[in-house]
Amino acid sequence: MQENAQELITYLSGFVSDRRKLRLEEVLTERMRHMTVVLEDVYQAHNASAVLRSCDCFGVQDVHFIENRNKFKISEDVSMGSTQWLTIKKHNQHENNTLACIKELKSKGYRIVATTPHKDDKTIAELDITKPFALIFGTEITGISQDVFNVADDFVKIPMYGFTESFNISVSAALCMYELTTRIRDAKINYQLSADEKKEIYLEWLKVSISKSDLIIKEFLSKKLDH
Questions:
Q1: Which sign, positive or negative, has the C-alpha torsion 102, 156, 58, 196?
Q2: Does 117 have pLDDT greater than 80?
Q3: How many CB atoms neighbour CB 211 within 10 A?
Q4: Radius of gyration of the chain (CA)
Q5: How many CB atoms are closer than 10 A to CB 81?
Q6: Which of 16, 70, 98, 101 has a C-alpha 20 to 30 A away from that of 226?
């Protein structure tokens, strides 16, 4: 990590209480990128927002939004400020943003896990969690696209015993995250972030924890130039 960034962390730390710093460090310790969440063309803001809130609660740091037809929208009343603690990436620069997102994730070593029934599907209790994976949820009405279906490495479902055929996407995501993050932590997998990743995220969290942090940072950088 760049020396300036470390110096900035040290400087900004002086603007938050010890209690606040301890809380940031506690949460950061349990953050993971071993599992990431992908939302493909989700169009209802309250659903996307509820998923973000669950990601924060369960310690899933990265969320990918694929925007082919529908744009990423947030309802702050539902997300409860969770967006500021997460790393959110929008995929909207390609002709087929689904395949571009999947290609990027696979290049980083993620297995692609589609949340949809399939002849070779597994339950969330059976899914292999030893290697990093990306859990993809599709749009509210039709589910995942055929593109996801064609290239997925695994298919996962949530067991259901009633007449209704599916859960609401935000409920489905929360159930999957609860089960899978619990299994990851219980399995003693090395899911924690690297030292550099922690520093990068900690710096971003300090910024959102401090009022007018942009002005404080500008002043800090100006003083460094003067010296």
A1: negative
A2: no
A3: 7
A4: 19
A5: 11
A6: 16
- Is 1's pLDDT higher than 50? no
CA distance 175 to 58: 11
Q: Tokens for 88, please give them.
A: 């959110």
Segments of 29-110 assigned E as strands: 35-40, 62-66, 87-91
Cα dist from 25 to 29, 31, 178, 198, 212, whole Å? 6, 10, 22, 9, 22
Q: How many CB atoms lie within 10 A of CB 73?
A: 14
H or E, element range at 114: strand 111-115
Domain extents in the chain: 33-205
Write down the CATH superfamily of domain 33-205. Answer: SPOUT methyltransferase, trefoil knot domain (3.40.1280.10)
| Sheet containing strand 154-157, strands side by side | 87-91, 62-66, 35-40, 133-137, 111-115, 154-157, 122-123
Amino acid at 114: A
Q: What is the pLDDT of residues 49-103, one digit of tens each?
A: 999 999 999 999 999 999 998 888 777 776 678 899 999 999 999 999 999 999 9
Number of H helices, E strands in the chain: 9, 7
Are residues 12 and 203 in contact, defined by beta-carbon separation less than 8 angstroms? Answer: yes
Measured distance CA(149)–CA(134) in Å, rounded: 14
Measured between alpha carbons, how far apart are the two ends of the chain, in Å? 22
